[in-house]
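Risk mitigation, structural track. In case the binding assays with AR6 fail to produce interpretable data, a predicted complex structure has been prepared as a fallback.
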Amino acid sequence: MGEQPLPPSPAPYRPLPPMKQFDAIQGDITQQRLDAIVNAANTTLLGGGGVDGAIHRTAGPELLEACRALGGCPTGEARITRGYRLPAKYVIHTVGPVWSGGRRGEPELLRACYVKSLRLASERGIKSVAFPSISTGAYRYPIEQAARIAVETVREALGKPTSVDLVRFVCFSAGDLEVYRQLLGERGAGSGT
Ligand code: AR6
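Fallback model:
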């Protein structure tokens, strides 16, 4: 056999556009070492149970002090503080709607939580954000409907100019993770663009 022809010379190197991604895991959001974690707070911002309680316990009393200075937050809006003793640098506090059947603006308010949290993140140049399943605990929003809003809203936001290039949904239960995985799988495994 003669010599093999040389392979064609490689195409010139062109950097790919930045990949924006989202994924879902099961875990404790307080342990996430991302730029920011989102808190499912209440309008007082002064702490509570569920993920709010866990975040305040891990962040320490400085977080409560910082929240007190904010003077509350209306439903569907978001505020930002430092993360203090958390591995995350920032906490974005957002207030989800209490579920009362779905005809009192709950879907729009829940959507606004994701939109406004990501807007605040981008204003700070934050690159990675972890979300809990907002409103689906004490506020009783049905998980399938809430997760669909979460995934669709985040997918949309990552398609627009933003500093955020990773969004992680941190599910507390295996059942919630399954719901998110199904939704993420519907259009490719978590690619946001
Ligand atoms: N990491 C991730 N997810 C968690 C964690 C954790 N450490 N702990 C709980 N979850 P909830 P809401 C999940 O009730 O429905 C608070 O008292 C939980 O399993 O924390 O928005 C506030 O002060 C569920 O899937 O938030 C408000 O008064 C999800 O987080 C009220 O609850 C949200 O459940 C807000 O209710």
